[in-house]
Amino acid sequence: MIDLLGIAKTEAAGGDLLGELSSLLELSEIKPNGYPNAVVWKGGKHDGIVNPVAHALTDAYALLGTLAATDILGLPFYAVPMWSQYRHDSNLESLAWFGNMPCTSIKWSTAGDAYVNDGKGNKVVVNGKSGNAPLRTQAGVYCNVRPYGPITVVRSMPCLPYSQDKPKFNITDEGLIHSEMNTPGIQLAYANRLFLKMVHETGKLGRVAMKPTQAMEDGISAGLHSWLLKGTKFKVGRKYAVDPYEEHKEKIDKIIGLLPSDFKDGMENWTGQIEQHISDTNYGLLIWDLIEKRDTIVLATDLDGDRLTDLLADISDPLRAFSGIVANHLGKDINTTTTWNELGYETGNGRDMTSVMYRMDGPPIHEQTLGSADAMLLRLLNGDEWVGGTKQPYDPRIHFVLIRDAYIDANPDNKVLHNWLDQSLEKFDAIYSGERPGFLEGYKALKEAITAWDK
Length: 455
Hints:
This protein is α/β, with parallel strands linked by helices. 42% of the residues lie in helices and 16% in strands. The chain is built from 18 helices and 17 strands. A 13-stranded mixed β-sheet has the order 1-2-4-3-5-17-16-8-9-15-12-14-13, sandwiched between helices. Strands 6-7 form a two-stranded antiparallel sheet. A two-stranded antiparallel ribbon has the order 10-11. Strand 8 (141-148) and strand 9 (151-156) form a beta hairpin. The two termini are 14 Å apart.
């Protein structure tokens, strides 16, 4: 078994985490394109039967949970160092290493407000904060897709706010805040097309959440959407009052001219129902879609997409709580979680929400949408994960869920692997369904319960 507590202590003390992990993992011959000196490790059973997945080794429980899960499962994997201190020391180059790995990948959460050593004995905020923006830029990410319950959000990126040109950000003597954006229009076009493709292939309702009346970037994105609809068989219910493509035609045609000549090939037969909304209204619509179990795909720009998915992750707990209030008012004492499940709702508390980032080139990057849980790690280091009975230990289920999704994505035809992954998740749930064990106790129990792929 891996000394996870020792690794946690090394990270917390700012010790030689690179050296400790180098002794645990083997250097890989696989390198990201254009980075021959990149540090890439490998582990698990590389048997040629299962296509490996690359992990970003990041911070706190995101790091420990990944190391534990890869050890428990024994699947072939690559790993790129990407924790706060290493991101800082490599001047963010490790983000480019990971972002250009030639395989399906999992980006685990990074700590954005961490202090690191600057090499001169001082503590400074980690360069690039969480590193999400430069990673997405260097990896060529054009959108991420977040399914949760009946709703899937397609979030265009890098767009607002990641397109801000920070060197040009300024506040004038008159108190005016000046900023400039450099939103990549080609990525907007690819995100729009993926959204329409998903609506066509799934038969789900498509909602467009943009604000072309107020935001110029939204006007361009909505205009690209309008252009893509032309010549297809989609039915549009609610429409924007002004066609944003016609309004911004000269500008949008510049982007269209940069797209491949076959960009719309085959779309003439795409069908589905599209509703075009001002972005604000989608917050309420999303709640109604969840309540009414309406299968929906929502297209949004980066900022609105982020807010929509945050709401989607958080709304189920308040809805369950409100159902309890109503039941109590009617003189009923109910278990709201049980009732929620009996009514056929599938969303939990957001901790099981997954996300997939699509790249212009290369396989997608699956990502963990939660934080690195650094506060929870302090409880482990302090020897009381329960904080006197007021808290629960870290729940590592997201690691097993996301690993399952990524390996199925990388191995779509390997049904034996799919079944084994499902069985492994069932064994995880059997251990964690009752009183949640401490992290190290859970690691030991899972090692005993799950027969690793490499055994």
